[in-house]
Each structure stands twice: as C-alpha cells, then as structure tokens.
Amino acid sequence: MSKRFTLIVAGDPAQRTGGYIYDAQIVSALRDQGWTIDVVGLAGIFPDADAEAAEALTQALESLPDQASVVIDGLAMGALPEVVAQHAPRLEITALLHHPLGDELGLNEADQQRFHRSELTALAPVARIIVTSHFTARRLPELAAHYALPLNTSVTVVEPGVSQAPISPAAESGEALRLLCVATLTPRKGQDILVQALSGVAGTHWQCDCYGGARDTAFTQLVQQLIDQNGLQSAVKLHGECDSETLEAAYRSAHALVLPSWYEGYGMVVTEALAHGLPVITTTGGALRDTLPTGAGLGVEPGDADALQDALSRFCHHDELRHQLRQGAAQAREALSDWQEAGANFAAALIAPANRLSSSTADSLGDFPNLRAGSQFESDWLTLREAADVDSRSQRLAGFAAEWLSARAPTPLIADLGCGRGSNMRFLAPRLSGHQRWKLIDHDAILLAQARQRAAGLSDSQGQPVAVETHCVSLEPLADVPLDDAHLVTASALLDLVSQQWIDALVTRVAGQQQALLITLSVTGEWHFIDPQCAPVLDDEDHWLLAMFIAHQQRDKGLGDALGGQAHQALVAALEGADYRVEQAETPWQLAAGSQEQQPLMMALLEGWAEAATEQAPEAAARIATWLKQRQQAVANGELGIWVGHRDLFATPLFANPREEA
After folding, report:
1. In terms of CB atoms within 10 Å, which end of the chain has fewer, N or C?
2. Rg of the Cα trace of the chain?
3. What structural domains and CATH numbers belong to the chain?
4. What is the DSSP letter of 153?
5. pLDDT tens digits for 450-484?
6. C-beta atoms surrounding 4 within 10 Å
7. pLDDT in tens, 568-577
8. β-sheet bridge partners, residue 181
C-alpha cells in the first residue's frame, strides 16, 4: 500500500470535538511521517443521514480511482451501508469508529436498533476496522452477536495520543480549587448531573469552569436553569466553545478535571488532563472505566448525582486525598503515548494486509487471541501482564540459554515467535552476551511497531546495543516463518494456542537446524484463588468454571485445534522424541490478595475467564455473571488473590556441535 489515503468525515473537519480532534491529530502525525492525505468533509445531516449526505458520500467515493485507499469516519458511514457496499469491491475502505452510533444517549429503542443494524451492515464489506478504544473493540463483536449480523473484518485498536504539556501547579493553601469540565453541551456528557452534584458540595472555596460548544440548545438551557435554581451562578460558568490556546490556559490553571459523561468511546480529555498532571473525577461509562488509570482519579457510576457529589466533596475537603490523586496522575502521565506514536500505530494498521475473517474465525473472537485476525493480542493486556511475567520467569533457564548462545556464535541470532510488544526480548536481551541480533515475528503490525520502538536503547549484559529486525507474518503455516538462521528459537505465552500438528512442525524445524528452544510462560490450564496467606481457596463454582475454561482453551485459535494446558507436555514429549535434552521449571503467577498493583491484572483475568466460559456455555450466562461479580468483589476487598499455573522449558539437541556464525 502506498503512503496515501483519503479521509472522509461528516461535516466540517475543523470541528473541536473529541472525534474530530483525533482525526486531525492522526492526519498531522502521518503527514509528519511522510504520508499524503486528502481530507474531505461531507455536506448533509449526520449521523441520521439525509439525501444530501448520501449524495455527498457517493460523489466522494466515485471520485476516487480503483484500488484507492480511503478511511471513512464512522459518523459519515454508519447510516449509509448501501453506499459503502457499492464501492467496497473497488476501493480499499477502512472504517474508523470512535464508538457505535446506536450507543448515543437519548435514542429510543427503535432508533438505537436501527443505528446498530445499519452500522454493522456498513462495516461488513470494508477491508479493515480501526477503533479508538479497547472498549469499542469488545463492543462490536457483542453487537454483531446480539443482532446476528456478520463482523467479517478484524478490529484494530489505535488509542489516541496526547500532546506534551507542563504539569499544572497544585493548589496553594487557601486557594480556591478550580474544577474543569471539557465537553460539548449534550445530554450524553452529563453536565446536568454535574450541576446537581455540585449543588451539594459544601463550602465556597471551589469553582467549576465548563468549556464546550452548545450542540443541544434545549439541554444547554436546562443546565443553565439548574445553575440558576441552585444559586451557583458565581461558582459554575458555561464558557462555550473556545480555541486551543484558551483551553490550554484552562488546563494549566485547573486542579482537577471533571467529566460526568454517561458514555464515552474513549474520553480523550481524561488523558489530556493527565498530561497536565491533573487528577480526574469521572464516571465508569463506556470506555472511561478503562481510560482512567487506577489511582489517578475517582470514578462513579454514570448518572449517579449523589455518588458524584460525594466524590467531589471528598476531593474538595480532603488535602491528603488530593495529594494522593495528584501523585497518581503524575505517575499515569509518565505512561502516556504521544500523537506520533498513535500515528505510527495507525499507519501500521493501514499497511497491514486486510484481514477478512471466515465465519468460524469471526465467531471465535473474544478475550483470547486469534492469530489470523488483526490486533487480538491487545497492547493493554500485554502491558498489564508484563510485570507478573518478569516475576515468574525462570532465571535458571534464561542462564542456560545464555550459555548455549555464547558457545555457538559471537553474534547470536534469536527468533522470537509471536513477539507481541517485545516483552520476551526485553527480559532476555540484558541477560545474554555478544552482539545480539533479534528477529521479531508476529502477525500484528501494530504490536511489531511497538516492539521495535521498545527495543531502542536496549543493551546486552555487557552494554552492547541489540540489533532488531521485524517480520509481519502469520505463524501458520510454520513453514513460511523465517527461522532457519536462528541459533535460538523462543516464544512466551504462546504454546496454549497451538495444535499438536503445529508443535510437531516446530520440533521438526528446530531439530533439522540443531537449534535450541526456549519456551516460557506456557499456561498449564490450572488456576485457583488464594487467601491472604497464599493458601489455596477451593470452591465448587470455581471448579465448574475452570472446567469450561479448559474446554474453551481447546478451541481453534488460528493454529489448529489448540492443546491449551496440555501443550507444554506435548512439546516436551516431541522434543525428547527428537533427541533433545529438556530442562523445565514451574513458573506460576502468584497474584497476592490485597495487592493494589496486581489488582488490574486479576480483574482482567476474571473477565477473560468469564467471557470464555460464557462462550463455551451461553445457556449458563446468568450463573457465570453471578460468579464473576462475587469474585471481583472478593478481589477488590483484598480477600482473594489468584494463582495461575505456567511452565518454562529450555531444550537443546543431545548431539549438537558448536557452530560458528556463517
């Protein structure tokens, strides 16, 4: 694909809402990276498209030559599936979704269903789908299943970046606290709930400044009426839409961001606030539960004015809480990605081959990755598990691998299968010596781009830089994967996805080349809960759910009928049959009860297990939901931790001779 595409949006591309700002920032970043992009704004009414809108989209697509690449913002295409379907066979169409149209607040049930069905129909023929949050990536398959409509295209997540910003100063002693709300005045943004909540916050040492265009006149009048009725004219100000300089000044003088939305597809203002080191008081609506990092703010259920009032009161009246949240926001600020990285991820998604899914593949999408389909090993999950992986991995086997490589080549080459974000390389490279070369292999172009970026500055045990090359290929068929020149083949957290045939093919290849094999963090299929003293907690419901999880593990994840927890032992048997010496180590995760640091990983595990069980036994969905709620509460209360079984292995040919690098 050439580095050129046309971006089509609804209305004026210069509008200052989250979706349009995302589009503009991506365009700017990609232009900086050498892309040529034509931006087209469509006339007409959207998203409930009128005849003028349909004609505008038709003309825009008809003007493009065959095989041209075009990205259509979801607001411009969701209600026009016939137009999209007409041009999809001759154009490379990418859909860019900020959130499903039918999830907008205020729609009646009939309109909600109409928008959902129309948008899913429009998505069916496109080459690829890019969404701006992992929440939306989860939401789309749910909607497709609910309406029994096909989702034939893989979904890739490209989260927004954030511009660098100075940290806003903390409130001085006695200074009035300045709360900032940045959102268009529409019912979904919940400013009416915010005013109701603020009316119950005691004291006069705070003020709230609201910036955002009045997109709904009646709602704007309602919010102003609530301000007047509660005597908050001097404390709550509606400033309307403003330019970027005014908004930046507002961020720099604020002490917290307040976002009372019922629902967000991502919530870019949250990360903008964090970039300024501001704590965030928001809801858990839509993607906001994911967007706000733990410890960087307070989250309440959407629409709950009393809970929001309590959160605002605690923030305004407790110095220690403000200090803690400010520290959390500063910590979260360090982990934010910029727009250049977002642009690179977007580019990688466009360059990657279009992934049309078979019906069986589409049906399998969920918490567990499918190696033929887009970004299923999602970046946030890989990030979440990395610390637990490092704590669990066998240092002894890593040492064996270092000894093997040092005896065979002054410049060893390591091939990393299913490398994801490069965590395996980041663990091993500092423990190996010699001028290392790494061959990072994954089906996902976005994760490969992140892995290459994370390799920058990486050194071996002697401080020498590490050379990296990337290969975007599927792991099936294995014969097409470039392994032959490697001295060591490695993989992490991959084995449970593969079949017996895939294992046999891998062993045949490495044995033919007399290569060593280091396979780590292979799940055994065993997990259980532990109490605060790390003793196992046994429960019939847990055993019942574990059985369904094990059955789900054995579904085809893209590499044949998966062996799940049996894969490790199957690999050991195949290696021993090929005259390999195999060293093993138990490497379980032990996630402690009450650990705030490990709690997000535990919550993600619980959700993943529940999703897998529900896919395996949909008739038991209510029982599984009850199990999930109870276990989440126990983990949140510090009553339970989680033990997850893993094993590592390192294998070398019994009759190998040291060989020099060619």
Report:
1. C
2. 26
3. 4-157 (3.40.50.2000), 177-334 (3.40.50.2000), 379-653 (3.40.50.150)
4. B
5. 788 788 778 777 778 888 998 888 888 888 899 98
6. 11
7. 999 999 999 9
8. 210
